[in-house]
Amino acid sequence: MSYAISAALQSAVFAALSADIGVSGAVGDAIYDAVPAGALPSLYISLGPETVRAADDKTGSGAVHLFVVSIITDVPGFSAAKAAAGAVCDVLHDGDLALSRGRLVSLRFEKARAGKIDKGLGRMIDLTFRARVEDQ
After folding, report:
1. pLDDT digits (tens, 9 = 90+) for 43-64
2. pTM confidence score
3. Residue 5 vs residues 23, 30, 47, 71, 91: alpha-carbon distances, Å
4. Contacts (Cβ under 8 Å, ≥6 apart) of 27
5. Domain housing 30
């Protein structure tokens, strides 16, 4: 098992989301690895935490990454956040992403959690995806 493909996977996810017209129609270019300081747009995407476990087999090294993509809005109501979440799922579920290192074997939607934040004034949807990767 190796964590070495993690950066390549994250870069590919960021690139795929940034290039998609459905995602950009929902959030523009407000896709962040690290949320910037200062004023934020009313709706944005944040690449979140991940959990990785070994998935080696007799053909080589591999790993399973469970990673979170969050849709965050300061708007009371889920409509815009759910539209953005749907666009993210359209891009990533069964996505065929090219990695700068290794190979993406599969990418699947795992689960979602939607909730209120900021004392009920905003909304957040956490989408969890499962990526199986191999190091080549």
Report:
1. 999 999 999 999 887 777 899 9
2. 0.94
3. 25, 25, 16, 24, 20
4. 41, 43, 44, 45, 71, 84
5. 6-134
pLDDT in tens, 56-114: 877 778 999 999 999 999 998 999 999 999 999 999 999 999 999 999 999 999 999 99
How far, in Å, CA of 23 to CA of 14, rounded? 11
The domain tally of the chain equals 1
Of the candidates 45, 122, 117, 59, which has an alpha carbon nearest to the alpha carbon of residue 88? 45
**Burial class of 39 by CB neighbour count within 10 A (0 to 12, 13 to 18, 19+):** exposed
Give the CATH number, domain containing residue 55.
Answer: 3.30.2000.30
| 1 assigned to some structural domain | no
